[in-house]
Amino acid sequence: MTMRALTRAAIRSLPALALAGALGSMAHASEGGASLFVPGLNVPAGGIVPPPGFYFDNTLLFYRGSLTGQRSTSLGGNVVAGVRASIWGDFATGLWVTPAEIFGGRLAFGLSVPFGEPSVRAGALLSGPRTNNQPIGLSVRDATVNFGDPVATATLGWNAGNWHWKLAAAVSIPAGAYQPGELSNLALNRWIGDFSAGLTYLEPTLGLDISTVVGLTVNGKNPDTDYRTGQEFHIDVGISKNLTKELSVGLIGSHYQQITGDSGPGATLGPYKGRTTAIGGTIGYTFMVGATPIATRVKVLREVDVKNRPQGTIGWVQLSFPLWMPTHPAHVAKPAVVKE
Fold first, then answer.
1. Distance CA 33, CA 18 (A)
2. pLDDT tens digits, residue range 133-162?
3. Is cis: bond before 44, omega within 30 of 0?
């Protein structure tokens, strides 16, 4: 594979690398059904690490869904029912792919800072801090623009021919603008570690990308609600095809499953193990601004099999580009030596 082809593929992979797990930092599904992982996050190009350099990614996430039936959930320490959520979040991410190699793999570090507005309406307030000033049984609504928890990532990536694979770790740091008692929190307010492995088969001649990323999320306790979310398994799979050098289309499938139950004094609804399967599609377009490639991507997924989480539609709008990549100096021919 040529470096040019690898670079194009690597630019498409920025969300999977720098935002592994990070975009899930919005409350939409565990305590409140809220996980660090959001379906469709990691593909396409889920196993690719870009060449050394500095990169920037900005991703807008949109979500609209509801907790169907008479299911209750816990939000900000409140037990509520009839939840409907309409959420937007913006995630600015910087990625540094270092020139260092460990066991032959490229080493990369990323940092994502999210902010946005979860607009949450509950048909009935059943218990919790808000019952001190609002009657039990009445509907409540919150909509506040606030910062989520920053997420730091580290990645090691390898490639051999058309095969690319990576190992990644992400940590969500509980330093966001979490407000106990509020329904509208982007921050999850707990330490979270996410560990994943990604694999991509990239055929640049055909423009074919087949990727999968498998991960495990390990949750700490929310100290403000005494709620410890269980551990979670997740997998993304995707296949995409370039129709032209600039335009690609693809299909995405995703599954999330909580494998251990919630616990702690705040887990008044019991283990509350969640599950969701989502399917959807993606369109990517890359263009040049001067000598800089700008990669854009739209994803839309619909949750089709859900338990103990809101069920809805997820949308992504992503913009990625390199800030700086090292240039290799042109070869300078040595002056000829003429023997007399």
1. 24
2. 777 878 899 999 999 999 999 999 999 999
3. yes
Calpha distance 45→250 (Å, rounded): 11
Q: Token pair for residue 6?
A: 């690898």
Q: Token match 């283990």: residue? A: 271
CA 70 to chain centre: 29
CA distance 332 to 41: 44
Q: Is 18 left (phi over 0), alpha (psi -120 to 50) or beta?
A: alpha
DSSP, res 43: -
Are 187 and 148 contacting, i.e. CB atoms less than 8 angstroms apart? yes
Type of residue at 231:
Q
What is the chain's percent helix, strand, coil content, to nearest 5? 5, 55, 35
Integer CA distances (angstroms), 260 to 26, 218, 274, in order: 21, 10, 10
- Residue 43's Cα: distance from chain center in Å? 10
DSSP 8-state secondary structure symbol assigned to residue 29: -
262-302 per-position pLDDT tens digit:
999 999 999 999 999 999 999 999 999 999 999 999 999 99
Q: Considering the entire predicted model, what is its pTM?
A: 0.87
Report DSSP letters for 79-105, one per residue.
Answer: EEEEEEEEEEEEEEEEEEEEEEEETTE
For residue 250, the tally of other CB atoms under 10 A from its CB is: 22
181 φ/ψ sector (left φ>0, alpha ψ -120 to 50, else beta): left
300, two tokens: 């839309």
The tally of CA atoms less than 13 A away on the side-chain side of residue 317 is 6
Cα–Cα distance for residue pair 231/205, rounded to 1 Å: 40
Half-sphere exposure of 62 (CA within 13 A, CB side): 9
CA nearest neighbour of 308 among 256, 265, 264, 263: 256
The whole-angstrom separation of Cα 13 and Cα 255 is 20
Tokens for 193?
């570690």
Helix (H) / strand (E) element for 232: namely: strand 232-242
